[in-house]
Amino acid sequence: MKNKKVILVLGCMLLTALCVALVANASFEPLFTARITVRSSLRGAPDQNSKRVATLYKGDEVELGEIDEEWTPAQRNGVEGYVLTASLRNVEVLSPYHALDGETVYPYAATALKPAVITGTLHASTGELQTIPKDAVIMVGPPDEDGNLLLPYKRTVGRADGKQFQLERVAPIEEASPGDLIAVYATFFSADIARSLMAGRLHNIQKGVELLDGLVIPAGEQFSFNEIAAPYTKANGYELGTIINYTSSKKSGYGGGICQVTTTLHNALLQLNVNIVRWAPHSSKGIEYAPVGFDAAVGSGGLDYIVENDLPFAMRMALDVWDGVVTVRIYRGTEE
């Protein structure tokens, strides 16, 4: 009888602990991942004197909530708590569409008024990441109290001085008039064309941009990337460029770089919640110029990117490539 009572008590304790864990996990929304720089602790509250709920070791990966200056909510192996922000490195955003201001789109297109520098990341100044050429367009969140703009930069979150840019508001779908900007996205690449493969990659990106610039997708119709841009061959005007390949040692191919155009378009269209009919990432490892899971591969063998415009109006694409930047803007089409 005594043993049964002990088992019953232990069972209740485990059930209570499980319920607490489930509630805690439900309340935690991971927005970023990061690595721990030095051995530290996961604390039960944002205070060094609060209860330690887990030990974190150098190199451990943790999931993060909204990053604060001193303490950031974090999760490791299902255990939640707070970690010192100073102990984090390699912060990567899980979704480039997560709210910088409570919304799920980047509310501004930002045009560089002069060569503009992306410096630092979300919570730290780490020096120059990339210089954006004059007149290039990127996508940004609203300015913070210091006038800084946050934007997805490759696999992290970049920071730029708002004084370097002129902002154009992205109109919400329900408010958009014909001709209004409704989505924008940009990706970044190395502009070093000294290497022949990099020069070929840039050529292929430029070709893809030219093919899609000005294209209109009427309401209710589908768009196939391959119908516009394929085949990716020398005979069709493509050059050898670097490719993403995790299945063999082959690192170059005709059309290498075209997937950056597809990826940039994909990230713009995702903000409109249109119907993505066919899409595939390169692999679970992702690519260098976009957060993992947000790339879009195209190629031979039916590897296509197909979208159906289920918005109540036509969409017009505007694509540009600058020195190190590929940008896709989507506008509401003019009335028929």
List keywords for this structure.
about 35% strand, alpha+beta, about 20% helix, SH3 type barrels, 5-stranded antiparallel sheet, 4 helices, 23 strands, about 325 residues
How would you sum up this structure in a few lines?
The chain has helices spanning 2-27, 196-212, 225-229, 258-270; strands at residues 32-36, 40-43, 52-56, 61-64, 71-76, 79-84, 88-93, 108-112, 116-121, 128-132, 137-140, 148-153, 156-161, 165-169, 181-188, 216-217, 222-224, 240-242, 252-254, 275-278, 306-308, 315-322, 325-332.
Number of strands: 23
Count of discrete structural domains = 3
In DSSP terms (H or I, runs of 4 or more residues), the helix count works out at 4
| Element string (H = helix, E = strand) | HEEEEEEEEEEEEEEEHEEHEEHEEEE
What percent of residues are in strands? 25-35%
| Major sheet description | 5 strands, antiparallel
Outline type: globular
CA-atom Rg in angstroms: 23 Å
Q: Give, in spatial order, the strands making up the sheet with the most strands.
A: 6-5-4-1-7
- What percent of residues adopt helix (DSSP H or I)? 10-25%
Termini, distance in Å?
Answer: 82 Å
The overall pLDDT average reads 84
* Low-confidence runs: 1-26
Secondary-structure class: alpha+beta
